[in-house]
C-alpha cells in the first residue's frame, strides 16, 4: 500500500513553513507600534503548539525521529533567539534619550551597513549620460589644473582631504542609538529570513521527494 502524505503536508507541514516565514518580519514592525514583543512571543507559542500536535501524532518510540520534529525544534530555537534579540533591540531604541556613548566598533558596523544596504537610485538614461559627461569635464578640468598650477593643485587636494574628513566626522556624529537599532534590524531581518527560507526549502524538498 503506497503512502499518501498529501493530507499531512497540507494540514501540518505547510502551515508550519508559512508560520516560519513570517517569523523574521518582526524586525520590520515599527518600534513605536509596541507590537514587536507580542508578535514574536505569539509566533513562539504557535510553534510550541504545533510541536505538541506533531508529538501527539507520532509514536512515542519512533526510531529514527521524524524530520518534522527536527525542523520544528530548529524553528523553535530561532523563535527563542528572535525574542531575545528583539528585547535587546527595544533596549537599544530606548537608549535614544540617554547620554550613553556608542562604542566605536558599533559605529563602524553601522557605517558598513549603511554603505552596503543603501538603495541605489537609478535615473533615466539621459540623466546618466549628462552626469557621466559632466564627470568627464570635471576630471579634465582637474587634470588641467594639476598641470598648470601645481601649488593650487596641492591646495585643492588639501581642501578635498579636509572636506572628506569633515564628511566622515559628520557621519560619525550623525549615528545615534536609533540609527544603530534601525541598521541592526535590517541585518537581523536579512539573516533570519535567509536561514528560514533555506531550511524550510530543504525540509519541504525532503518531504515531497
UniProtKB/TrEMBL annotation:
It comes from the Eukaryota. Gene3D superfamilies: Neurotransmitter-gated ion-channel transmembrane domain. Residues 13-136 form the Neurotransmitter-gated ion-channel transmembrane domain. Pfam families: Neur_chan_memb. GO terms for cellular component: membrane. InterPro entries: Neuro-gated_channel_TM_sf, Neuro_actylchol_rec, Neurotrans-gated_channel_TM. This is Acetylcholine receptor subunit alpha. It comes from Mizuhopecten yessoensis (Japanese scallop).
Amino acid at each position: 500500500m503506497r503512502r499518501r502524505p498529501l493530507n499531512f503536508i497540507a494540514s501540518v507541514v505547510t502551515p508550519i513553513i508559512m508560520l516560519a516565514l513570517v517569523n523574521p518580519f518582526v524586525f520590520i514592525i515599527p518600534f513605536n507600534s509596541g507590537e514587536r514583543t507580542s508578535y514574536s512571543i505569539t509566533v513562539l507559542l504557535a510553534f510550541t503548539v504545533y510541536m505538541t500536535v506533531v508529538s501527539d501524532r507520532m509514536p512515542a518510540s519512533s526510531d529514527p525521529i521524524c524530520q518534522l520534529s527536527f525542523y520544528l525544534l530548529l524553528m523553535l530555537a530561532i523563535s527563542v533567539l528572535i525574542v531575545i534579540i528583539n528585547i535587546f533591540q527595544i533596549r537599544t531604541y530606548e537608549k535614544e534619550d540617554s547620554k550613553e556613548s556608542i562604542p566605536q566598533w558599533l559605529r563602524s558596523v553601522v557605517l558598513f551597513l549603511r554603505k552596503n544596504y543603501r538603495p541605489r537610485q537609478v535615473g533615466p538614461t539621459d540623466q546618466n549620460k549628462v552626469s557621466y559627461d559632466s564627470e568627464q569635464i570635471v576630471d579634465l578640468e582637474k587634470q588641467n589644473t594639476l598641470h598648470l598650477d601645481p601649488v593650487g593643485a596641492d591646495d585643492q587636494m588639501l581642501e578635498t582631504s579636509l572636506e572628506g574628513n569633515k564628511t566622515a566626522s559628520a557621519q560619525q556624529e550623525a549615528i545615534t542609538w536609533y540609527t544603530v537599532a534601525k541598521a541592526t534590524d535590517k541585518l537581523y531581518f536579512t539573516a533570519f529570513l535567509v536561514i528560514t527560507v533555506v531550511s524550510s526549502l530543504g525540509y519541504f524538498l525532503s518531504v515531497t521527494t
